[in-house]
Structures are given as C-alpha cells and as structure tokens.
Inverse folding.
C-alpha cells in the first residue's frame, strides 16, 4: 500500500535532510580512495575495505544494526516490527574499477543509508526489516582474470558461487587466487563454501538497487531518474583470434595472402551491419569489439599481419537477439575462413541471460515518480548489476537509475546531488511502504 | 651483341664450376654471422663488416681489383679492354635484417663474384670494366629509426644522401646517429658529404642486380628465375589513428557511440574492396594494414574503443594506382568521420615512386633465358632494392629474381643452389657481352 501524500512529503523532506550525510560520505570516499583524478577501490582489496569501514561506521552512527557475511558483504539493518518476516533490501557495491568514478556502486549504498536515515528521522516504523547491503566485488571483471561468474560478492551471498571460482579467478594486481585474496582480507573462503547461502529467496521479499546510469540516455532525454525495465544479457568472446600468415607486405601477391587484419575487419563490419539491422527492426542491441589488435612483438608496417586478437561484447534485452548475433558471427566467420584461408577462433562465447525487472516493482516505481513529481522514463540497463543475481534466485528485483554525465568506469562520472536526492526519495518511498 | 650458342655454353659451364666458391661463401657467411637460427649482419655494424671482409678476400683471391668508397661500399673489378669506358655493374647488399636469412642481399654479391670468376676462367675479355658492388646498409629500415631515405649505402655512393640523414637516422642497437655509426666503422661521413658522388650516370652503363624473390610467386609458378619488370612504389601511413570516444559498452546506445574500431574496420574493408577492384581491372597492387590495434593501457572488453592506431602499406607498379588508393582512403575516411563522429588521421602519407626496369634489359634477360634454357616469367618486385637508386640517377637498371621459399627477412629463406646457378648463368650472360 502506497504512502499518503502527506507521508510522501514528510519522507521526501527527510531524504533531503539526509543529503548532508550523503555528501559527506561521497566527499570522504573520493578523498580517501583518490587515484590519479579518479578513485580506486580494488575488489577484495584496500580501497574497497576502506569504503566498507567508512560506511559501516556511518551506519552504526545512525543506530543501525551492522553485520557481515562470510563473503565480506555488509548489512545495515533498520529493524521492522516483524523481525522474522522476509526483509526488504536495497544496496549496491563499494568497489570500483581501477581509476574509476566515485558514484558507480557507492551511490546505491549511500542512497540506501540516506533512505534509512530519513525513515528513522521521519519516524517511519517499517513492517519488516529494511536492509542495505554493501556488496563486495561487483567490478570483479576489472580485477580478476580467469574463469569466474562475475558479481562475486552478491553471488557468494546468494549461494551462486562455485568452489572452482576461488581457484580460477586470479587477481590482476596481486596475482593471488580469489580464495587467497579473500583470506588476505581476513575472510574464510572454505567456510563460505561449506556453509548454506547467507540469503535465500525466503529471506528477501524484494531487492531494489539505485545506481547511476552508465550511459547518456537520461542526460539526452533531460530526465533525472530512469525506471529500469531490464538488464541486458550478453554474449561475449573474450579470447577471439584470427590466425593468418605473416608474409612480406610488398612481395606476396594479394591472392596468396592470409591477412588476419583484413579478415577481422570484414568480420566486424558484418557484425556492425547486423546490429544496424536489429535496431532498424525495433530490437534492442549494443555491440562492440573493445579490444582488437595485432601483436606488437610480431607486427610491422611491412608485414602482412598473421594474427589479430579481439573481444566481442554483444548485449540485448532479448535472448533471441543474442542467439541471432552469435549465429551471424559464426556463419560470417566460416565464409571468411574459406575465402581467405584464415582461421577464426572465437575462443567460446559466454552467455549471460537478460533480466526482466519485476513488473510490480516497475509499476510502483512509475507510481512513486508521479507521487513525488519526479520526471522519469523507462530505460534498459546496459551494464550488469547485482540486482540480476537477486532476480536469478527468485527475489522480485528492480533498479532506479540516476542521471549521470560522462558515463561510468572513469574519473569523470558526473552525478548531480539534486538528481541523487530525487532518486533517493523514490528509493525511500519504495522501501518505506510500497514493497 | 649477344653471345654465340657455343660461348653461352662455355660460360654456363664455367658458372657451374664457380658454384663451389659460391657455396663455400654462403656456408661461411651463415656460420660466422649465425644468430638464433638465422643470421644477423647489422647495417654499419659487425656482421656486415665481417661479410665485407670475407667476400673482399675472396675477390682478391680471384685476382680482382678491390676498392671501397667513402660510404664503405666495396667494388670488385674485372678490368675491361677500355678502362675509361662506363662500367657494367652488378651487386647487392651484405647486411641483413636482425635474425634474417642468409641469401637476402648476399646472393646478389656472391652471384656477381661467381660470374666474374666464370668469365675469367672461361677466358672472356670484357670490353669494359665489369664491377661487382658490395653495398652497405640496404636493410637500414630495420636498423635505423628516424627520418632517412633508406638504401643508405647505394644512395651515399650515388650522391642521393642528404647531410641531415647523418644526424636524423638513429641506430636501434647502439643509439648512435648514422654519422657516428659510420665513424665507428672507420669511415669519414663529413668527407663523404663534402665529396662529389662516387658514381654518376656517366660512370655506369648498366646496373643489374640478382636477388632472391621475397614472395611465393616463383615457387607457385614452378619457375627458377623471374625477370623483374619493375619495383613497386608505395604510399604509406606510418602513424594512422582513428579517434572516437571510450564509453561503456553496455550502457551507451549504439547511436550515441563513436567507436574507433568499427570505424577503422569499415575503412580497411573499403580499402580491401578497392584493392580487389584494381586487381579485377588488371592493375598491379598489394595492400596491408600491418599494424592495427587498440591501446592496451585503455581498452577493455566492456568499453567502446575510443582509439585505434594503424599503418597502411599500399604498393603498386603504377603511380596512378597509388594516387587512386590514397584518394579512396581519404574520401572513405571523410564519409566515416561524418557518419560516426570520429576523427580519422592518417598522419600523412609517404610516397615512394614505382621504378620501371630498363626495357632493353628486360628484353635481353628474356632472350638470355631462352638461350640458356632457363624457365622464367616476368615478375614485379614488391620490396625496394638498390637497383631503384641506380634507376633514379639515370642508369639503365634491371633485376633477376631467384626462386626462394618461405619469403625473406626470416631464418627460413630457402634458395636452392641449382636455382641460384641458373640465375647466375643469366647474370654472367648479361655481364659478359649483352649489356
């Protein structure tokens, strides 16, 4: 049942009052994890630990219960009237990419804390526990190489982590395995694996995550808030290679060549066209080959390139589109292999399913925007988020995006505190009663 | 005037007899400049000097006059009846690329010496001096960075070297300037620059160079010898860049992106098609982007790539084709820039003119192949050679290619001595009387 208009206004004002706390946390996080213009908070590393210590202190200062789980995730709990009822949860992660921005992740944790502070200050007495989860290692793709399932902190809490990941994921900075890296943070990964999940679908009635938008849509549309309808799934090739033959770039006739770069360029151009076709049919898709290059130890201006390595990242809200693009890549590659005498090896495609956000959450979020007078649009999330892991185990889940200029994963993230306040009003409105 | 059939046979047999000398030189060169499977004879460095000393000794052993010029090139002279008449010259270079093959360069010097030995042994009394030039620093692109005109030894001898090159060319191994590197070889580069050219068009009636083929054409065509019709010119971009914008590869809609890799791939694919069009019209062209890549410090699987660096190497026997391809690159780039919101910067195109071999030489070479029963085809040279510098100052010039497997500039060069003997027969036939 939604709040009355008077309750809505009281809570909104209390959220505005809690912005001093939020700004203080953002400022101190930026200062104390500063690294060359941006911030660095390594997954299961120093910067992340510093952020956890700082925000947990603030939570204790607000009189919240603070606990942790075996994976090092923290929980700030505003107790509800029925302590045994499934809790309403919000949260996000406190790690960052190397030299990233101050808001990707931290905004969701700080917003949760500000919402809890506002609920306390406004005298809201929740029916059930309202918990903020400060999650570990969401940015693990930037910190751990090797085969792992991503979103390490939330997946560990939800029982989705496999024991093999503790060995297979290798920290890019320290060279330690994930297990060793967790142990170095004072955790006990063996106990983690031997124990039941910290959270199950029975423990959580709803998960809602506030996050900065990582793209330019809200800026372009001049809207402070986005109601996330889904998280794009992806299909990725991390270790793509085209193998041709290194030869003299003047003396070998074109027809005798096996040019890996021209073969690779033709493949990307074909995938680019298929992407345009999906979009022109009204489908949802983004596509990039973020890494593509010849071997600096082998290549030369005057050699036909014999090898190129590449990555592919194809994302869509629609699983059928991912399947279509993978099929396109494979059939175009086969044709290029036959014609050019090269070998195209995608190194296997990983697949991550799209997530459709809980329909009742989305409906309530739109209702909340109307009640609070917040201009908002529906939006797709291009990046993966911990919310999709909650969805995976069956927790009704959703996300609020806050307008942010210059994208994320860089030092220039630019979220206005006024937009953050609107997003936090919406979050508090959902946590206080709606869910 | 060509040799009689009887003279031709006598000379051919004498050439076969001189193969023992040639094989001995090849073996000793390979052994004494061995480096990790291949050979290393640094331009104006130790391996080159060792080769010069060894082959000059062999020339003296044959009773030839041996001289050098101020650039360190050596001349082995079989005196003619008229010592004042312009000489007939052959030759090639004795340096190699790092860990290169035994025959690229050395084959031409050894063939010249073997031809002189055969002429002496068969009692040929040439009308004019027949000179073998052992040239310095033809592989200078692999040894000296910085702005220089290439083919340093021959260009110095022919008066084509600019004084600034002595300062601008920096040896990759020693860090010395070209001038310092020459001085370390006991040469006097200042005196070289202050002196008139060692060779002018008035001093040389013809230059003919035997060289291994650097491509696969003679192997594929099953011909031991190629009559080189021209040396491809080239137009090159050494410092090409596409500048786009790094953004999140999931969150930024395709239409908001400025993807440097997709822009670069589209450019290369367009140039590849234009190359095919030139070939289908019967034109001569080869094209490669030997280096193409995103920045390892900036790129990521999950970032839209904001920059790619590339090289272009476009070669043709026809200058108009080079102009056409440059025009194609520039117009396609302008269209891509406008559509994708990226910047394509070729960093300036260098241009090296094609060289058309002397028509009378080519005619005589084909006639010689017939007289000697050597299966041969016309062939283009894709790589640059000292012969083009002789052509540049107006000396009628030509080249003989000898079949060679596995390309050149690598340890696996594979020239059969039987093919070399046929090429040397043709060279001796040209030197003895034809030119």
């Amino acid at each position: 049942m939604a709040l009355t208009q008077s309750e809505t206004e009281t809570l909104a004002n209390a959220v505005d009052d809690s912005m001093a706390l939020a700004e203080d946390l953002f400022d101190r996080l930026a200062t104390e994890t500063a690294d060359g213009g941006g911030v660095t908070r390594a997954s299961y590393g120093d910067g992340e630990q510093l952020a956890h210590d700082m925000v947990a202190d603030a939570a204790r200062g607000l009189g919240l219960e603070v606990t942790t789980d075996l994976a090092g995730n923290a929980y700030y709990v505003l107790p509800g009237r029925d302590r045994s009822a499934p809790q309403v949860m919000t949260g996000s992660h406190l790690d960052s990419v190397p030299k990233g921005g101050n808001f990707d992740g931290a905004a969701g944790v700080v917003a949760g804390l500000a919402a809890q502070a506002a609920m306390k200050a406004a005298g809201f007495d929740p029916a059930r526990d309202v918990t903020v989860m400060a999650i570990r290692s969401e940015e693990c793709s930037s910190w751990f190489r090797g085969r792992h399932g991503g979103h390490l902190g939330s997946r560990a809490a939800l029982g989705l982590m496999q024991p093999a990941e503790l060995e297979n994921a290798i920290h890019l900075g320290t060279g330690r395995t994930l297990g060793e890296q967790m142990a170095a943070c004072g955790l006990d990964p063996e106990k983690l694996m031997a124990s039941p999940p910290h959270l199950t679908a029975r423990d959580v009635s709803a998960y809602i995550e506030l996050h900065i938008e990582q793209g330019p849509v809200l800026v372009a549309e001049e809207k402070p808030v986005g109601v996330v309808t889904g998280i794009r799934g992806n299909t990725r090739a991390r270790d793509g290679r085209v193998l041709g033959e290194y030869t003299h770039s003047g003396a070998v006739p074109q027809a005798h060549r096996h040019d890996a770069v021209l073969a690779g360029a033709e493949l990307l151009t074909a995938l680019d066209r298929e992407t345009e076709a999906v979009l022109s049919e009204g489908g949802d898709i983004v596509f990039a080959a973020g890494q593509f290059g010849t071997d600096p130890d082998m290549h030369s201006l005057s050699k036909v390139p014999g090898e190129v390595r590449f990555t592919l990242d194809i994302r869509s809200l629609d699983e059928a589109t991912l399947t279509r693009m993978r099929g396109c890549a494979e059939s175009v590659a086969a044709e290029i292999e036959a014609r050019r005498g090269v070998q195209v090896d995608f190194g296997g495609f990983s697949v991550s399913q799209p997530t459709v956000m809980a329909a009742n959450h989305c409906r309530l979020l739109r209702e909340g925007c109307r009640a609070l007078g917040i201009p908002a649009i529906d939006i797709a999330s291009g990046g993966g988020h911990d919310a999709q892991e909650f969805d995976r185990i069956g927790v009704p889940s959703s996300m609020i995006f806050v307008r942010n200029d210059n994208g994320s994963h860089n030092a220039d993230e630019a979220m206005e505190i006024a937009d953050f306040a609107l997003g936090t009003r919406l979050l508090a409105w959902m946590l206080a009663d709606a869910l």
